[in-house]
């Protein structure tokens, strides 16, 4: 059965890898993007997850194209790294509004039709930073840690309706977001990873594909690290 899937922030990086992986599995995939162009071969919808009206419109377009959304992946996120003494309040709240409150808006809109269908998958993309912390990223870490509590609470709310909610916590992944770091910083991070390398976005995507599949039907409220061991013990 072809399922309707929506991936937020799906035009590049981890989100695009997830969208392509789910499309390859046979799902009908829609992706949201805030800027740029929609990825080739996927149904793209322009959407800013900080605006509830945008989120609602994106779901309406995905539903019109592919039917009620059965799998939603809340992946859209930003970073605005600054040490706390120099961090402006809007630098903190902008990241929270996109990464955490944006996921709330997306999940809230997604679960209404899922409740009627009595099935669905909600997958939230967090980060190892939300579990272990990172200097200069208090805003980002707070937003990603918040997804864990949000996701686990939602899993308890929705479990009796056949809807699973899980969190994926990637580590250091080769994306445009990490490419801006200088080589010395990247090498320092690699040395702290037991597997000694960055992840490929496709490695995150395959875990999401598993969680969206029937094989993961008895997994909910889980936080799955895909970080090469970077966050071990957290």
UniProtKB/TrEMBL annotation:
Task: Establish whether keyword Thylakoid is in the entry.
Answer: no
Q: Cite a single GO MF annotation.
A: oxidoreductase activity
GO BP, one annotated term: monocarboxylic acid metabolic process
UniProt keywords, alphabetically: Oxidoreductase
Q: Which superkingdom, per the lineage?
A: Bacteria
**Does the keyword Oxidoreductase belong to this entry?**
yes
Ranges for domain Ketoreductase: 3-176
Q: Record's NCBIfam families? A: PRK12826.1-2 (NF009466)
| Record family assignment | Belongs to the short-chain dehydrogenases/reductases (SDR) family.
- PANTHER family in the record, alphabetically? 3-OXOACYL-(ACYL-CARRIER-PROTEIN) REDUCTASE (PTHR42879), 3-OXOACYL-[ACYL-CARRIER-PROTEIN] REDUCTASE FABG (PTHR42879:SF2)
Q: What is this protein called?
A: Beta-ketoacyl-ACP reductase
């Amino acid at each position: 059965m072809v399922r309707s899937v929506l991936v937020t922030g799906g035009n590049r990086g981890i989100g695009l890898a997830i969208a392509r992986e789910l499309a390859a599995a046979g799902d009908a995939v829609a992706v949201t993007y805030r800027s740029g162009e929609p990825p080739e071969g996927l149904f793209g919808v322009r959407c800013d997850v900080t605006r509830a009206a945008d989120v609602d419109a994106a779901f309406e377009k995905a539903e019109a194209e592919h039917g009620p959304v059965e799998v939603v992946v809340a992946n859209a996120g930003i970073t605005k790294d600054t040490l706390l003494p120099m961090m402006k309040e809007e630098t903190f709240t902008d990241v929270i509004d996109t990464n955490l409150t944006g996921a709330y808006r997306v999940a809230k809109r997604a679960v209404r039709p899922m409740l009627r269908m009595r099935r669905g998958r909600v997958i939230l993309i967090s980060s190892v930073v939300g579990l272990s912390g990172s200097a200069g990223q208090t805003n980002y870490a707070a937003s990603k840690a918040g997804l864990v509590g949000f996701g686990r609470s939602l899993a308890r709310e929705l479990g009796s309706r056949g809807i699973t909610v899980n969190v994926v916590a990637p580590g250091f992944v080769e994306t445009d977001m990490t490419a801006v770091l200088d080589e010395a910083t990247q090498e320092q991070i690699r040395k702290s990873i037991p597997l000694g390398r960055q992840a490929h976005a496709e490695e995150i995507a395959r875990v999401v594909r598993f969680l969206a599949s029937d094989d993961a039907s008895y997994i909910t409220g889980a936080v799955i690290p895909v970080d090469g061991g970077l966050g071990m013990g957290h």
